C-alpha cells in the first residue's frame, strides 16, 4: 500500500471539516470584512494616497463603501493601464520591462498574467503572492466540497491531469515574470505536489499537438489519473485522442476517471458530444470560474450551477449590462451595486477590487444570479454582444443556439465563431464540424430560430427586415484549430476560440472564413 492510499482516510476526514467550514461562510460578511482590509493594506501606495484609503479604512462599512465608490472611478483595462501602469513600462535591449513598486499594491508585483489577442494589445494583469495563495485556497475548498460529498472517492490516492496553457515565463525586470496564469501556477506549485500532477517536463513544454497526444497516452498508461482539469473544447479533443489511440470507448479505457473540472468557456455547445463520449455513470463534472484577476466561483458537488465565492481576496461589484456602451465598457454614469444589492435574473458586468492591486476594475465577464441565498449564478460570457444592428444578442444566447443545433445534429459542431456582416446586414457564422452531415442552410435556419426564440430584439429586427437571414460557412474541425494556431498564434491549454467576434467590422470572422476558403482543406460544400 502506497503513501497516498494510507493517507486517504485522514484526507477525507480533513476534507469534510474544511467543506463544512466553507459552507458556513457568509458571502456578505466576508465582503464587509474584506474592503477595509484591502484599503488598509494599500493605504501607503501611490494609488491609496491619491484616493485617501487611510481615511476610508476606519469608517463604518456603509459609509466606507459609499465614499469608496464616490472617490474611485470604475476603469477598463486600457484606462487602468494609461493611468497607473504605463509609466512603469520601459523598453531595454533585453525587451520590455514592467516593474510596479508600491503603485497600486504594496511592494513589488512579482508576476503578470499575460493575455494577448489579435484585436487588442497584450494585457498585463498584476498577480501577487496574496492572490496566488487565495487561488490555492479556492481550489482546495472546491476539491474538499467534492470529497465531502463523495466519501468513497479514490481521488486522494490518485493524480490530476492539468491541461495548462503555455508554461513559458519571460523576464519583465529583476524579480518580475510574465506569462500564462497556468505557467505561474505550475512554477509556484509546492514540490510535494509534483508526483500527483501530470503532465511533467518535457511534455509540458512540447508543442500543443505533441502535448495532446502525450497526455492521451498518459491517460491510457497511468490509471491513477482520477481528475482532468481544463477548458471544455480541449478536454473534448483529449478524450477523442484517447478514443483514437485505443480504438475503444473512453468509458472502457478510463474506468478510474472520476472528475472533470472545466471552466473558461461555456460547456453548453459541447454537451452533446460529451454525452456521446461519456454516457451516464461516467465521471462527475464541476465548473469553476477562475480568471487572471481573481477566482470568482465554483460548483459545489450536487448543485446544478456555480456559487459566487467572494472569500478569496476580491471585492465584487456589479454593473447592469444596460449600463454598458457598444464596446461592452461601463458608461461614464454607470452605477455599480454591491453583492448585497444584486437582483436575481439581472445580467451584470463584474467589477473587482483585489489583493493584486486592481481597484474597481471592469474585467469583461458577465453573469446572472439565480438566487441570493447561496449566490448561485450562471456565467453569461464576455461583455461583448452581437449588436452591430442594435440587436444585443449575448454570448450566452449564441452558445445556447449552438447547443440547440448540436442537440438536433448529434454534436456535429465542435467550435464556432459568429460576427457581423455589415454589408449583408446579417450574422456571419463559421461552424467547425466533424464530418459533413450538416448543410449550411439547415444550420442557418436552426440558429436563426434559436436566436429568435431567445432574443426579442433579434426577432423583431428579423421581422422588420433590419437583419437578414444568417450566413453560415461550414469548415472542418482541423481548419479552425489551424487558423487559431497560424493566424492568432494561440492553440490549446487555456486559450479559447472567441465565440463572438469582438471587432467592430467582423474582421476576425472574415479572417477565419478567408483562411478556410484558401486553405488546402476545403470547406464543406454548402448550397
Short description, anyone?
The chain contains 18 helices and 23 strands. By secondary structure, the chain is of the alpha/beta class.
Report what the structure shows.
- The structure is a single chain.
- The strands form five sheets. The protein has a twelve-stranded mixed beta sheet with strand order 8-5-9-10-11-12-13-18-17-16-14-15, sandwiched between helices.
- It is built from 18 helices and 23 strands.
- The chain is an alpha/beta fold.
- Among the domains are: 130-299, Rossmann fold; 385-518.
- The protein is globular and about 65 Å long.
- The termini are far apart.
- Strand 11 (284-289) and strand 12 (297-299) form a beta hairpin.
- Mean pLDDT is 90; it is low at 522-527.
- Helices cover 37% and strands 21% of the residues.
Distance between the termini: 63 Å
What number is the mean pLDDT?
90
CATH C-level of the domain at 130-299:
Alpha Beta
* Helical content class: 25-40%
Strand content: 15-25%
Instruction: Return Rg in Å.
Output: 23 Å
- The strands making up the biggest β-sheet line up spatially as 8-5-9-10-11-12-13-18-17-16-14-15
- Which regions are unreliable across 5 or more consecutive residues at pLDDT < 50? 522-527
* Main sheet: strands, sense, barrel: 12 strands, mixed
> How many alpha or pi helices?
18
Number of E strands: 23
Amino acid at each position: 500500500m502506497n503513501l497516498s492510499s494510507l493517507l486517504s482516510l485522514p484526507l477525507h476526514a480533513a476534507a469534510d471539516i474544511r467543506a463544512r467550514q466553507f459552507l458556513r461562510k457568509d458571502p456578505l460578511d466576508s465582503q464587509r470584512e474584506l474592503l477595509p482590509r484591502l484599503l488598509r493594506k494599500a493605504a501607503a501606495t501611490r494609488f491609496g494616497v491619491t484616493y485617501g484609503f487611510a481615511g476610508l479604512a476606519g469608517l463604518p462599512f456603509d459609509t466606507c463603501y459609499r465614499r469608496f465608490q464616490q472617490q474611485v472611478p470604475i476603469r477598463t483595462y486600457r484606462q487602468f493601464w494609461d493611468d497607473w501602469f504605463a509609466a512603469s513600462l520601459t523598453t531595454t535591449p533585453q525587451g520590455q520591462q514592467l516593474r510596479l513598486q508600491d503603485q497600486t499594491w504594496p511592494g513589488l508585483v512579482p508576476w503578470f498574467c499575460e493575455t494577448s489577442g489579435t484585436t487588442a494589445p497584450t494585457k498585463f494583469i498584476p498577480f501577487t503572492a496574496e492572490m496566488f495563495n487565495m487561488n490555492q485556497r479556492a481550489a482546495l475548498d472546491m476539491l474538499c466540497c467534492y470529497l465531502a460529498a463523495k466519501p468513497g472517492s479514490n481521488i486522494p490516492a490518485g493524480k490530476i491531469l492539468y491541461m495548462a496553457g503555455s508554461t513559458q515565463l519571460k523576464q519583465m525586470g529583476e524579480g518580475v515574470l510574465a506569462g500564462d496564469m497556468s505557467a505561474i501556477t505550475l512554477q509556484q506549485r509546492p514540490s510535494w505536489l509534483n508526483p500527483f500532477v501530470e503532465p511533467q517536463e518535457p511534455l509540458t513544454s512540447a508543442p500543443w499537438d505533441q502535448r495532446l497526444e502525450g497526455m492521451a497516452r498518459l491517460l491510457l498508461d497511468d490509471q491513477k489519473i482520477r481528475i482532468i482539469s481544463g477548458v471544455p473544447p480541449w478536454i473534448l479533443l483529449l478524450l477523442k485522442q484517447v478514443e483514437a489511440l485505443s480504438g475503444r470507448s473512453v468509458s472502457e479505457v478510463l474506468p478510474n476517471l472520476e472528475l472533470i473540472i472545466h471552466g473558461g468557456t461555456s460547456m453548453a455547445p459541447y454537451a452533446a458530444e460529451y454525452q456521446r463520449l461519456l454516457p451516464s455513470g461516467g465521471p462527475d463534472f464541476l465548473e469553476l470560474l477562475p480568471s487572471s484577476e481573481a477566482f470568482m466561483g465554483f460548483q459545489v458537488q450536487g448543485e446544478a450551477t456555480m456559487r459566487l465565492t467572494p472569500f478569496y481576496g476580491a471585492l465584487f461589484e456589479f454593473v447592469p449590462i444596460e449600463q454598458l456602451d457598444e464596446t461592452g465598457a461601463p458608461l461614464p454614469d454607470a452605477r455599480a451595486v454591491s453583492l448585497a444589492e444584486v437582483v436575481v435574473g439581472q445580467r451584470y458586468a463584474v467589477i473587482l477590487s483585489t489583493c493584486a492591486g486592481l481597484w474597481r476594475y471592469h474585467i469583461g465577464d458577465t453573469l446572472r444570479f439565480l438566487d441570493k441565498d447561496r449566490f448561485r449564478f450562471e456565467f453569461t460570457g464576455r461583455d461583448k454582444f452581437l449588436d452591430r444592428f442594435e440587436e444585443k444578442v449575448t454570448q450566452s444566447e449564441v452558445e445556447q443556439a449552438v447547443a440547440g443545433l448540436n442537440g438536433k445534429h448529434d454534436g456535429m459542431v465542435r467550435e464556432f465563431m459568429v460576427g457581423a456582416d455589415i454589408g449583408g446586414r446579417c450574422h456571419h457564422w463559421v461552424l467547425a464540424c466533424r464530418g459533413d452531415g450538416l448543410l449550411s442552410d439547415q444550420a442557418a435556419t436552426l440558429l436563426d430560430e434559436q436566436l429568435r426564440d431567445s432574443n426579442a430584439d433579434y426577432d423583431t429586427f428579423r421581422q422588420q427586415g433590419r437583419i437578414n437571414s444568417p450566413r453560415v460557412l461550414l469548415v472542418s474541425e482541423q481548419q479552425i484549430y489551424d487558423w487559431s494556431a497560424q493566424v492568432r498564434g494561440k492553440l490549446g491549454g487555456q486559450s479559447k476560440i472567441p465565440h463572438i467576434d469582438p471587432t467592430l467590422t467582423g474582421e476576425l470572422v472574415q479572417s477565419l472564413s478567408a483562411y478556410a476558403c484558401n486553405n488546402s482543406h476545403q470547406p464543406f460544400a454548402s448550397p
